[in-house]
Design goal:
Catalyzes the reversible conversion of ribose-5-phosphate to ribulose 5-phosphate. One of its GO terms (cellular component) is cytosol. Belongs to the ribose 5-phosphate isomerase family. It catalyses: aldehydo-D-ribose 5-phosphate = D-ribulose 5-phosphate. Its EC number is 5.3.1.6. With 233 residues, the protein is an alpha/beta fold. The protein is built from six helices and 15 strands. A six-stranded mixed β-sheet has the order 2-1-3-6-14-15, sandwiched between helices. Strand 9 and strand 10 form a beta hairpin. Helix 1 crosses helix 2. The longest helix is centred in the N-terminal third of the chain and has 17 residues. The protein starts with a helix and ends with a strand. It binds ribulose-5-phosphate. Ribulose-5-phosphate (5RP) binds next to helix 2 and helix 4.
Length: 233
């Protein structure tokens, strides 16, 4: 196992120890870090921990069910106590880029349905300024090239000129999200006002949601390559 995976696992376990309690309603994030967390949570559930859980992607539902966590439909769970999820990038104010796994829409819906969100990550995800990781924007398929033009304009209006903007594809086929949309990735370079960019992108007709999370997370559990962890609140 790589040191990075060890760090991801350590972060998830520390988050369970610190933030997960019997009887909680929990949102389960997506991506490799979250999947490690879900596997650790499954062990605790087998040891008697009682939680109610919902997920942020079909892939996380599959992992949760594999490890014996019963998944409640997001429409039936009411307000969640806590969501635990991973970022692609996170700054020291807990602003994040998410959506590297194309799950950003469900992740944001579940995060906003939760009283608290805690981010779990390995040390490589922490940055001074967001933007090196391409910012994903989930768009409806109709007129997506028009939407891309408007995304470019909105980025320019927010001080991000010359961004490389393209539809995400795998083996020549467009990536389709769990909700049936396209993902447009935007290589921005540096995003100095992530809250403004998040709002501006979501004003564009055709944009369903974007991967900037600027007010959701209230803390992070960082896993280091030596296996140690740090909680930052
Ligand atoms: C999926 C996401 C993931 O949470 C994000 O990509 C982090 O993934 P990983 O833990 O594999 O680095 O936003 O849409």
């Amino acid at each position: 196992m790589s040191p990075q995976d060890k760090a991801k696992i350590a972060a998830g376990k520390a988050a369970i120890d610190e933030f997960v309690f019997d009887g909680m309603k929990i949102g389960l994030g997506s991506g490799t870090t979250s999947h490690f967390f879900v596997r650790s949570l499954g062990e605790r559930v087998r040891d008697g921990l009682s939680i109610t859980a919902t997920t942020t992607s079909r892939s996380t539902t599959a992992v949760a069910e594999e490890v014996g966590i019963v998944i409640t439909d997001v429409n039936d769970i009411g307000e969640l106590d806590l969501t635990i999820d991973g970022p692609d990038e996170i700054d020291r104010d807990f602003n994040m880029i998410k959506g590297g796994g194309a799950c950003l829409l469900w992740e944001k819906i579940v995060a906003h349905a939760s009283r608290k969100m805690i981010t779990i990550c390995d040390e490589t995800k922490i940055v001074d300024v967001l933007g090196a990781f391409p910012l994903p924007v989930e768009v409806v398929r109709f007129g997506y090239r028009q939407t891309m033009r408007l995304i470019e304009k909105a980025l320019e209006n927010n001080g991000i000129a010359g961004a490389d903007i393209y539809r995400r594809e795998t083996n020549g086929d467009p990536v389709i999200t769990d909700s049936g949309h396209y993902i447009i990735d935007c290589k921005c370079g540096q995003i100095h006002d992530p809250a403004a960019v998040e709002t501006a992108l979501n004003m564009i007709p055709g944009v369903v949601e974007n991967g900037l999370f600027t007010g959701e997370s209230s803390g992070m559990v960082v896993g280091h390559f030596d296996g140690s962890t740090k909680i930052i609140l």
